[in-house]
Amino acid sequence: MGERRTRLIRARKAAYYTQETLAYALNVDPTTVGHWERGKSEPLPYKRPKLAKLLGVDREQLEELLAEGQNAPSAAGSAAAPPPADAVTTSGDLDYDTWADDLDRAAVCLGRQEFVAAKLLLDRWTGQLASGADQRALHLYGRSLRLLGDLRQDQGVLTGPLSARQSYRKAMAVFAELHSDRRVAQLELHLAVLDEMSGQLEAAGRQYERLAADHRLDARDRTRALLWVGTALSKAGEGTAAITFIRPAIRRFEALEEPQDWSVAYQKLALAYRGDGDLRQATAALEVALDHRAGDAPMQRVRLDTAHGHLLLSDPATADSGLALLEGAAATATEYGMLHQLQAITGIRRAYEQQA
User: In whole angstroms, what is the distance from residue 269 CA to residue 280 CA?
Assistant: First the structure.
C-alpha cells in the first residue's frame, strides 16, 4: 500500500498537480490531500473516475490509497519537485510551446465543462510572473488568467479573491501592458457579463451597448454585445425593448455564419417573448433553437433545457414537463459544478411554486 501511495504522490508532483487541485478533483476539503499524504486522513469517497486514469492507477487502487492510514515513504529524490503553484520562472526557462499547447487543451476542456482537467493544466502556469518576462511570456500569462476567469465564471465564482472578476482584471492589466486593445476590450465584455450574472442589469446593459459599437472588438464580439443588451433588458422585465436588440443580432450572426451564436440568440429571443407574454412567438423561437442545437456540451444542454423548462411552466398543461426538464438540468448543473446555472434553475422553480 505504501508503494502505491508513493506512486500517486510522485505522479501528482511530476504532473505539477497541486494538493488543492487534487482535493478539488476528489470533492474534498483542500487540506485533506496534505493530511492524507502524511498518512493522517480518514477514508474518503471517490467521485471522479477520470482522475485515477490521469494519475496512472486504477479506481480500486486509488480508493485503497485514500483509505490507507499509514505514513507514506518519502518521495524525495524519486521525481523532480514541481515549481510552486504561484511561481512562474523567467522567460528564458519557459517552454513556450508546451505552455501554448496546455492553454489550447484547457480551452477544449472548458468547452466540455471538464473543470478539473482545465484547472490542472492552468495550475502549471498561473501565478505571479517573474521579472524579466518577455512579451510572449506576458501574452501566454494573460491568456492563462483569462481562461482561469472563464473557468471560475462557468463555475459561478463571480466575486472574491479567487473569483472570475479577479482573474479577468489581472488579465486586463497584462494585455494593457502589451497594448493589446482587442484583448482589453474582450475582457471589458467579460466583466460586463459578470455584472449581468450578479444582477447588475442596468450597468451591464450600458456596458454592452457601448461595446456593441466599439471597433476594438471584431464583428462577432460586437454582435454578442448587442445580443447581451437584449439579454439584460429581458432579465429586467423589458421584453419588448429586448427584442429590438436580439432580432438584429440574429441577422448579424447569420451574415457572419456563426451558427452556434445564432442558435443561442433564438433561445434568448424565446425568453424575451415569454417575458413579454407572447407564448406563441416564444414557442416558435425556442423551436428554432431546439432544431439547431449549438452542440451538446453540458453548459449548452443546461441552458437550453432551462429555457425550455421555463417556457413550459408558463402553461398549466405543460408545467409538469417543464418541471421535469428543470430537474434534469439541475442534476447536470450539480454534476458539473455549474453553481450559477443551478441558482438560476432554483430561482425559476421557486417563482413557479409561489405563483402556483
Answer: 12
